[in-house]
Design brief:
elongated; single chain; 363 residues; two-stranded antiparallel sheet; alpha+beta
Length: 363
């Protein structure tokens, strides 16, 4: 599915909740078991009214959802989430009735409500819709991330088929902000309050979900989300395609002044020239014969985003050079000694190009 940077939310399948320990792992478990519509919920013989993003039951039920060993530990986790502003909860000490509400519940993309059946979704089925900025709250409070927090942070900032990131057409890509397509272990360590070596160990542990691709020089690296739900199976992009996109962007931005470090500048150039690059690749896929070059992207994907009403008179190669193909003349119809000579070679040698006057002159 498409998931663009301009969207304020992102989808998380219930069968791919954050892995490892962390406060966001507990949040995801609570959100996955909350009601998706308004209705009546049954718990231990009691009927409770619930609204979207709400759960009502007992402390034992909370313990089961979080997978905690004790009720005290479950309540401490719930209290910590409440302090961070992720949930609101109430506990009746007499009846032991517990109710919590997910404060960041997204209802704009939930679709039409189901009027019949259970108000709680089946465990491990469907997806959660969560704000992209849900982990930014931890960054603002200088919170030390755990593994699940970092895992969900990368997931929330995944983009797919976004025109501002050419690499997202190869595979879902992690991008922090408009200019954050290129990352480094140092920048992620500063965000998560980790050392560089810990960030590296994290990606080695969860390489089935997030794969690093190091860019040439000091540009940094790209992070691809291999578990993100798309219409087709995700495969790791080839290094040749990635390096070719980098080269194309550098050609388009040859007159741009460098801003910031190498990886910051490259992230800025990707955001500024990805749309132009995708447009040119789509045009070339339409107008260029297959024998001249191989397109960077699948033309059938790009046709959904661009219209190609104007045909170019020249054929451009990957470096933007115009290729002039002279007409082929059938030499079998030429009489005399020239009949055995390739007339296209003669045609090329008869003219040369005069750069100062910008015209062809006869030899």
């Amino acid at each position: 599915m498409k998931c663009l940077m301009k969207y304020q939310w992102v989808k998380l399948p219930r069968n791919h909740l954050p892995e490892g320990k962390g406060i966001m792992s507990a949040w995801a478990k609570l959100a996955a078991r909350a009601a998706f519509r308004k209705g009546q919920a049954s718990y231990c013989g009691h009927i409770n009214a619930v609204s979207p993003g709400m759960w009502s039951g007992g402390v034992v039920g909370l313990k089961s959802i979080l997978g905690s060993r004790s009720r005290i530990q479950s309540l401490e986790t719930l209290s910590k989430l409440s302090e961070l502003g992720y949930v609101r909860y109430s506990l009746n000490t007499k009846t032991k009735k517990l109710t919590y509400q997910i404060t960041d519940w997204v209802i704009e993309c939930s679709g039409e409500e189901c009027m019949n059946g259970s108000v709680y979704a089946t465990e491990g089925y469907g997806f959660l819709c969560l704000p992209r900025s849900i982990t930014d709250r931890l960054v603002e409070q200088n919170y030390i991330f755990d593994e699940a927090d970092a895992w969900l942070d990368l997931w929330c900032h995944t983009v797919s088929e976004d025109l501002g990131n050419a690499f997202s057409f190869l595979a879902p890509t992690v991008q922090f902000g408009k200019f954050g397509a290129v990352l480094t272990l140092e920048t992620l360590g500063q965000r998560w309050n980790w050392e560089k070596t810990k960030v590296w160990r994290f990606f080695q542990k969860y390489k089935d979900a997030f794969i690093l691709h190091r860019l040439p020089g000091a540009y940094g690296c790209l992070i691809f989300n291999m578990l993100y739900p798309t219409a087709s199976e995700i495969t790791m992009p080839e290094s040749e395609k990635i390096e070719r996109i980098i080269a194309e962007i550098r050609i388009l931005a040859k007159n741009e002044q460098k801003v910031g470090s190498d990886h910051e500048n490259m992230g800025r150039l990707i955001a500024l020239y990805s749309h132009q690059l995708l447009t040119e690749c789509a045009d070339e896929s339409e107008n260029t014969p297959p024998k001249n070059r191989v397109a960077l992207f699948d033309p059938y994907i790009l046709r959904a985003y661009f219209s190609h009403s104007n045909c170019k008179k020249c054929i451009y190669d990957c470096k933007g050079m115009c290729i002039y193909s002279p007409p082929v003349i059938d030499t079998s119809k030429i009489r005399g000694p020239c009949g055995s000579v390739d007339i296209t070679i003669i045609a090329k040698e008869m003219f040369t190009y005069d750069p100062p006057n910008r015209r062809k002159i006869a030899v």
